[in-house]
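Fold these two proteins, one after the other.
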Amino acid sequence: MSIAIIVEGKNDKSRLKRVVDDSVLILCTFGTPSSLTLDELRKKAGHKHVYLFTDNDASGKKIRSLLRDTFPDAEQIYTRKGYAGVEGTPEEYIIQQLEKAGLDEYIIYPSTEPAVE
């Protein structure tokens, strides 16, 4: 299965890229998407299974609502209230949410090896 995860901005994308492998397409809305942006996102996502991962604030909820209309079959991934958006969410929590969504095969887990000096 090939997947796409849609986030709000480039900092969210950078944060997510650190914990998922390169096969995952990460797309950005860059704020509240226009109908043109939504069309572009639909084309870029193609036939991939789409996941929506937006901030847990008023803006993120509005964006999620617009994306839900465009991608009615998309699965939802949530960050916790109190975190400064996806970009401010600890990697461990992002990994937990990706696991909840069943995306284990795409996760890059942090090394548990001690640093070699």
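Now the second one:
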Amino acid sequence: MSKQFSLWLRSIIAIVIITVITLTTVLGFIPTLPAIAAIQQFEEQPGQTVYQTRHPLKDQQGRTWQAIAFKRIKPDGATVLNFRLAGFPGSVRIDRTQPLQFRNSFGEILTAEDASSQMFSNTNAPEPHIGQYNLQPIVSDLRLELPWRITLPTESGNAITFALPATFLADWRTLDQQTKD
């Protein structure tokens, strides 16, 4: 019986080794496709083009926010590059008197100024759970190779933080390079 067991064990080990080698070889030759930014383009009004990308983004408490970056090219050629964070109604009151902060792993801080007034038709009653920020001055300084965290100030003083995926930064760079067709 020990001879049969030894033969059985060797067979199993050989099968496992062959399977691992085969999987490693096959997976090693499958080309990985580059991440493709999901950038949408639409004409907002005659002569005004908007490019945007949308992603869900979780905060430190696990709540999901909608993260929208967009570049608007106006008929006169003027552009804006903004980032909008939208939480669930009633979940938070964003402090618009403070900028959105981007902090990298070296402690460097970049700030994006509030641009929420451009978003609401009734500027006296903006939605408290939606904030919009000007990315244009800082987008080229957000180095892709570094991990970044976003700090969103709130009226309660309890800032909300998000880990910023490098894919978002890549999308923002792509948006920044968009030109009118």
